[in-house]
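F.,

This is the one I mentioned.
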């Protein structure tokens, strides 16, 4: 025969037997007790004790200090560098960073640049940069454009989430605008010079004066040449590198590290640099000027991409040049 009693309890040594007839009432009683406990817990969690409020304040202060750490570090390094406070124990600022902090020269200068930009955008900004990565793209803009670009990035952040990638896209828009304004100004100046030259009173300008004016115009054009940087290079991709926030991707050189060399320093010395906002036809001419080539499309396993980039980087070559070298060696056998 089946038992009419129910065993309640989880401790094998402390079983209590509840008659089946009493079970529904007991269950209902337990539900009421559980609801009362949940109500008490909810009321307790909505109000912090004095000790909890003090702890929250301390923890939030820690978070705030951590968010500002890159700015404070950059400020301190700039003071140490500019005032040569390292001179007692180290001959150069680079030696100081390497031996005192195990910090590369590039990383130190990145932090200094980030601190400069942070100071430039912080006045009047409702939200400040949270880390060095958010500041990094702004270094490619003139100082007067940085606050405007940052304000736009804050106001247009998708779902209110501000990311370094979004800042980079905003910087890209500002660079396009600067390039368009520059082209319009150059066209306007050219038209004005043409009208002035065709004016009857100016047709008798001496050859020497024209020569000097031409040299001055050439000097002015050279001065207006955009500063070379990876951020305004035609080959630089703003797509983030997955699982590696300290790197970016170059269409010519593959994956490159910010830690080894920052974008401004790398771009200023890169022989493959090409103005990002150059006219499409000029891009084609620049590519043809490098060498005569043909297009070869290959579908390779994805795991080979990183290996090919590393192999090319080891030899100091662009990925396309490295691949061409391998193919040329294979064909020549």
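My design for it:
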């Amino acid at each position: 025969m089946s038992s009419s009693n129910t065993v309640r309890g989880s401790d094998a040594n402390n079983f209590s037997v509840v008659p089946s007839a009493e079970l529904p009432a007991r269950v209902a009683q337990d539900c009421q007790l559980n609801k009362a406990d949940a109500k008490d817990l909810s009321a307790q969690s909505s109000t912090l004790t004095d000790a909890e409020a003090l702890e929250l304040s301390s923890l939030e202060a820690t978070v705030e200090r951590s968010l500002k750490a890159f700015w404070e570090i950059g400020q301190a390094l700039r003071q140490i560098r500019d005032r040569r406070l390292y001179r007692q124990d180290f001959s150069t600022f680079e030696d100081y960073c390497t031996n005192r902090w195990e910090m590369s020269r590039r990383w130190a200068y990145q932090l200094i640049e980030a601190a400069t930009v942070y100071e430039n955008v912080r006045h009047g900004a409702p939200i400040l940069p949270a880390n060095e990565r958010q500041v990094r793209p702004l270094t490619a803009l003139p100082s007067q454009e940085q606050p405007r670009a940052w304000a736009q990035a804050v106001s247009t952040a998708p779902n209110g989430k501000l990311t370094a990638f979004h800042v980079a896209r905003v910087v890209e828009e500002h660079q396009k605008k600067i390039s368009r304004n520059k082209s319009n100004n150059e066209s306007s100046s050219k038209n004005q010079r043409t009208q002035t030259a065709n004016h009857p009173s100016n047709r008798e300008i001496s050859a020497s004066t024209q020569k000097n004016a031409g040299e001055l115009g050439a000097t002015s054009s050279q001065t207006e040449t955009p500063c070379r940087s990876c951020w305004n290079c035609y080959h630089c991709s703003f797509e983030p590198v997955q699982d590696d926030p300290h790197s970016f991707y170059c269409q010519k050189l593959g994956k490159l590290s910010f830690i080894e060399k920052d974008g401004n320093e790398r771009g200023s010395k890169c022989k493959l640099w090409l103005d990002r906002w150059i006219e499409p036809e000029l891009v084609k001419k620049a590519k043809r000027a490098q060498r005569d080539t043909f297009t070869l499309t290959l579908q390779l396993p994805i795991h080979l991409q990183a290996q090919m980039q590393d192999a090319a980087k080891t030899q100091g070559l662009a990925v396309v040049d490295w691949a061409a070298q391998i193919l040329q060696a294979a064909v020549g056998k």
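The chain has 13 helices and five strands.

Talk soon.
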